[in-house]
Amino acid sequence: MIKAILIFNNHGKPRLSKFYQPYGEDTQQQIIRETFHLVSKRDENVCNFLEGGLLIGGSDNKLIYRHYATLYFVFCVDSSESELGILDLIQVFVETLDKCFENVCELDLIFHVDKVHNILAEMVMGGMVLETNMNEIVTQIDAQNKLEKSEADK
Amino acid sequence: APVSGGPRCSVPCPARPGADTTAIMPAVSKGDGMRGLAVFISDIRNCKSKEAEIKRINKELANIRSKFKGDKALDGYSKKKYVCKLLFIFLLGHDIDFGHMEAVNLLSSNKYTEKQIGYLFISVLVNSNSELIRLINNAIKNDLASRNPTFMCLALHCIANVGSREMGEAFAADIPRILVAGDSMDSVKQSAALCLLRLYKASPDLVPMGEWTARVVHLLNDQHMGVVTAAVSLITCLCKKNPDDFKTCVSLAVSRLSRIVSSASTDLQDYTYYFVPAPWLSVKLLRLLQCYPPPEDAAVKGRLVECLETVLNKAQEPPKSKKVQHSNAKNAILFETISLIIHYDSEPNLLVRACNQLGQFLQHRETNLRYLALESMCTLASSEFSHEAVKTHIDTVINALKTERDVSVRQRAADLLYAMCDRSNAKQIVSEMLRYLETADYAIREEIVLKVAILAEKYAVDYSWYVDTILNLIRIAGDYVSEEVWYRVLQIVTNRDDVQGYAAKTVFEALQAPACHENMVKVGGYILGEFGNLIAGDPRSSPPVQFSLLHSKFHLCSVATRALLLSTYIKFINLFPETKATIQGVLRAGSQLRNADVELQQRAVEYLTLSSVASTDVLATVLEEMPPFPERESSILAKLKRKKGPGAGSALDDGRRDPSSNDINGGMEPTPSTVSTPSPSADLLGLRAAPPPAAPPASAGAGNLLVDVFDGPAAQPSLGPTPEEAFLRFVCKNNGVLFENQLLQIGVKSEFRQNLGRMYLFYGNKTSVQFQNFSPTVVHPGDLQTHILSGPAQPPVDGGAQVQQVLNIECLRDFLTPPLLSVRFRYGGAPQALTLKLPVTINKFFQPTEMAAQDFFQRWKQLSLPQQEAQKIFKANHPMDAEVTKAKVRDRGRVCRPMNFVGAGIIQTKALQVGCLLRLEPNAQAQMYRLTLRTSKEPVSRHLCELLAQQF
Q1: In chain B, what are the domain boundaries?
Q2: Which residue of B has its CA nearest to A26?
Q3: What pTM was computed for the model?
Q4: Model confidence at B433: pLDDT above 90
């Protein structure tokens, strides 16, 4: 199960946080800080997996992350998930964002938090993977956009 | 443009190099406009300081609040805009304490955009115990019934994201119906499957299994791969608790997997990821299969083995793409395949291939693959088919420990070395781990220390190596050597007389170092106090030299260590009378006798007095060498398990690989029970008398360091054994600690003669605060025929004080349930209450009878009615030792035969006497006992049998 999905930039500013287990608001912020601290001090080209921080459950959980330019994408998962599978999933997520935002950049995530959440919701639901087919996800998002447009035109 | 400031940041997509050079699209120009939102976000980003940001946010919050509270009804667009602002503020780490109601209102909008943002707000910001849940549930109910797939999916998402019990109660019954309904859209089925999974995880009791389970299994055949993906996750979770309900999923999963694995790389179209067909689904199917044993049906099994072989073969083929995504996806399937092969652990051929494949990965240039290979090999090491094959990689793994740049990978290498360790390579692995420890990351030092300590003990052939290893641990990483580790070396040295001289010599040398770790002083102090005499013949380590060496460290040490050293000194007085004057001088010094620390002061006073008043004989008895420690699970192993979760010690737990390996433990003599005293002031006895095997640990204060050595896991959360365990312990003993928690310790001393008993209860207040209204009372359960006269215990009980209560007990007739002690008091205003069984059992009124063997068997035959006999066959709880067993049986009668213990006695009550005969037959090979009781009263036979069976 995926426990949390976090995106933050190189300075630790959160750009997306999605928790699939109930945590208090303060704990959520602490988890983001702790995770940033763990991930950001790692060199490039080391492995993409590490044991989770204490707040999110310690060594029972793994942090699986990718670093794209200014952003870290971090998935916190339990032992039932395949590490490489999650790495692929991060890639699918980023490629989908890239399609939906036409060359995604950090600013897109900042100004469209709601959209990013919607895209993520098409992939992951309640901590489990719903869909991995990028075209399917993009089709759903396009359909949503059309709905939005038609409602705005009314 | 409203968007300005901030560095230009972008997310390049590795699949499309150059994406990062594209210019930023100003958010507001994308046409989906919420201009106010964009302006607000830009304002925040332009804030020069944290204070300015907070000020801007507070201004916005006030604005939104007034808009929500205002008279004018907001339109959907405005509501959406404000809710988006709140989400953004929340992401920045600010509390949002309003807006929930507005979000709930958005749920009932007919517009998709408004509904969606309402659900988003709720799934991000509403916690499961909100009082709004009822309103939210109403909206969800409407959307689920709407037959609009988009709305249904939004509602299902919301349930899955909040996942509260109340939502489960409201919807758990409906969702299976939606999931298997013929007319549900694929996207709805997908969402329903995961929604159900989430509810099941949160509250399994709310999801009843039923007719729908069979139809869920058949979703594995669904045309839509997304539905299959969701269904596999659901089944994997459900089948863990209900394997039989779902066992048909095995053959369906195998055929689905087989179709994917054998498909060409383009067959599955959109589900092909970088030339790999449906990697995610393959991984999930392989995980599902790991929930079951290998398929029994030969055809299914053949097909599966074929799949596994295909995956292994494909790993050797040249890659279809150079992209890392391609190899990632391919290897994700490969690693899962290997996990399944290890899980089955029945196909030697596949296991060896898996091991070879992992061996290749150990040297792969991709760090991720090295990491995963080390991790998988850890599990492979515990398979008997592949343990030897794993061992051939030892040099590579040691090299990884030395050279990997990434601590995560080094940690896996250390884990693997631990898992592959056996007698043949233990010395090499331990020495490599010790070397690694010198430079290891602080975060993992403690774990490495534990691992080295366990391996050194487990595979020690000669104990001097073991002692050297542990002392090295203390030298290299003293701060990380926990109590468990140095307690353990003391236990082992105490129990092995062939290593005591070497240990004394080695610690003596180690203590010569000008700066040695305090843990070294502790170990050194303890060992020299016990076995310093073994090296005293050498003038370089004569008694005065030993003493002055230890004493030179004394002033630098903590109170706990100094307390231990004082005990060493008094032991020296016994071992080496020539040091008596010097040591008495030290004890007499004002810094000891008037030490501010009460424990040190008490030790100094008591030891000084003891050394002056006691005769040499008494001194020799009181300060005799420690008896061997009773053997139990290594407390270090227990600690590692706690640290790493169950399974961490598995490499050592299973005797499968190395059944003869516990020779350290094997040679140990269990200790005969000695009476321990419950009084906290009886420190001198605490120093020398070993509490019985399962004595409760004394309180964790510095003064009890030595007592703590006796106990296994020193850091266990509750202070003592559970009351039930404590009670059982008293079946065969009369004195000890009956109960202990943070506040209170209850000690018991009792004596019994004929049908009378007297029991002293000691209530110790462990806090510094007075207990008010302290009232211990004895409650008689209805069927108890024991008569108790209570002496008063006077309330209140001052902090740190101990009060005493005396009970006179008369056994009127035989009884089954013990009297209950109820203790009530107020601590810091809070009422405290506890109820304990008093350790009065029928066997306390046992009078042993002398009897010749033939008399015994004659009487045995006389008591031959079936109801007079009670028998129990059980596994030995304690090491089988003839002497100890004899002592236990003797407590309740005479012993006649060596390997077949019998006892006879009479239970004395006022009303009647019950003659009892006991027979205990050990089976050393099976480690089992058969206990037979024959008495003239049926309930007594059964009750005694139950009580005594716990004791062997």
Answers
A1: 359-446, 460-635, 723-840, 845-950
A2: B93
A3: 0.66
A4: yes
